[in-house]
Design goal:
Layout lengths: L2 E2 H7 L5 H9 L3 E3 L2 E2 L5 E2 L6 E3 L2 E2 L8 E6 L28 E2 L8 E7 L2 H8 L7 E8 L4 H9 L2 E2 L2 E2 L4 E7 L3 E8 L6 H8 L3 E10 L2 E2 L8 E3 L2 H11 L16 E2 L2
Parallel strand pairs: 9-15, 13-18
Antiparallel strand pairs: 1-4, 2-3, 2-5, 5-6, 7-9, 7-17, 8-9, 10-14, 10-15, 11-12, 13-14, 15-16
Helix pairs in contact: 1-2
Length: about 260
C-alpha cells in the first residue's frame, strides 16, 4: 500500500519526518530512478526507494534510549566543525538513532534518541506540551520577584513564554540553584528566560522529560527504555487536550550554596 515517502523514511528509522521532508525537498530521495517531490507516495513492496544513495529497506526494530548528554556534544547527526556528536555515544547500538529535540552544546543531561520517526515527531510537536525539568545554576540571587516573573511568563523576542514552575531554590552568596520546569522547547529558552531577569546561567542540566528521570545514568552513558516506558510515552503524546495551568504557588527560597 503506497505511503508518503517521509513516513516510510521515518518508519525505517533513518530520520524524523521533518528531516525526511527536508531530504525530499533537497532532491536526496529517488523513487524508481526519479527524484521525488514532497507529497509523493511509494510502496516498499514494489518501488525502489533510494535515500542519500542507499536503498530503503524494511524497518528495523524500534528502540528509544535515554542518554545523559555531557557538555561539549552536539545534538545533531553531523557537524561541519567536526565537534563530538551525541550519536557517537550510542554508536555501539546496531540501530541508527537520532535525537528527539536538542540540547545546546554547553547543556547537559537527559536527551532521548530513537529510530522511531513517529514517536520523535509527536514528542517534538509543541501541541503536546510535554514537561521538561532543568537543574539551573546561576550567578546572583533568585529573588521572589524573579521567581514570579518566571512563573508568570517572560516576554522574549519570539513571544511570551508559557508559565513555568520554579522549585527547590537554594540561594548562596555568589550563585543560586533551582529547578525550572517548562512545557515549550524554544531555542536556548531556559538561558534566555534567565537572562531576561538578570541571571547568568553557569550550568544547565535537564533532569526530567515527562515521567522520565535522569536517575543514576552516568554522564556519557545511556539506557534503553523498556517497552512499558515507550508505551507510556506514546500515550502521553497522544493527549490533545490543553493541560491545565501550573499551580500558581511559587517555590520558597532556601539557604544553601
Amino acid at each position: 500500500m503506497p505511503e508518503r515517502l517521509q513516513k516510510l523514511i521515518a518508519q525505517a528509522g533513518l530520520a524524523s519526518r521533518r528531516q525526511a521532508e527536508a531530504w525530499i525537498a533537497d532532491g536526496r530521495v529517488l523513487v524508481n530512478g526519479t527524484v521525488s517531490q514532497l507529497g509523493d507516495r511509494a510502496d516498499l513492496a514494489h518501488d525502489n526507494i533510494i535515500v542519500n544513495g542507499r536503498k530503503l529497506s524494511v524497518a528495523e526494530e524500534k528502540i528509544t534510549v535515554l542518554l545523559n548528554k555531557p557538555r561539549g556534544y552536539i545534538s545533531t547527526l553531523k557537524d561541519p566543525q567536526g565537534r563530538d556528536l551525541v550519536t557517537d555515544l550510542v554508536a555501539d547500538l546496531q540501530q541508527r538513532l537520532f535525537p528527539i529535540g536538542r540540547l545546546d552544546y554547553n547543556t547537559e543531561g537527559l536527551l532521548l534518541l530513537t529510530n522511531d520517526g513517529d514517536l520523535s515527531q509527536r514528542l517534538s510537536h509543541p501541541r503536546h506540551h510535554v514537561e521538561k525539568t532543568y537543574l539551573v545554576k546561576v550567578r546572583g540571587s533568585l529573588t521572589e520577584q524573579k521567581i514570579c516573573s518566571l512563573r508568570d511568563g517572560i516576554l522574549l523576542n519570539d513571544g511570551k513564554t508559557q508559565p513555568a514552575r520554579v522549585a527547590n531554590v537554594r540561594n548562596g552568596r555568589a550563585t543560586s540553584w533551582f529547578e525550572l520546569t517548562i512545557r515549550e522547547g524554544r531555542n536556548r529558552q531556559v538561558r534566555r528566560m534567565c537572562e531576561a531577569v538578570d541571571l547568568q546561567v553557569v550550568r544547565l542540566k535537564r533532569v526530567r522529560i515527562g515521567f522520565l528521570e535522569l536517575g543514576n545514568v552516568a554522564t556519557g552513558r545511556y539506557r534503553i527504555l523498556t517497552s512499558q516506558e515507550v508505551d507510556k510515552l506514546k500515550k502521553l503524546v497522544q493527549i490533545k487536550k490543553q493541560p491545565p495551568p501550573f499551580n500558581e504557588g511559587i517555590g520558597t527560597p532556601m539557604s544553601g550554596r
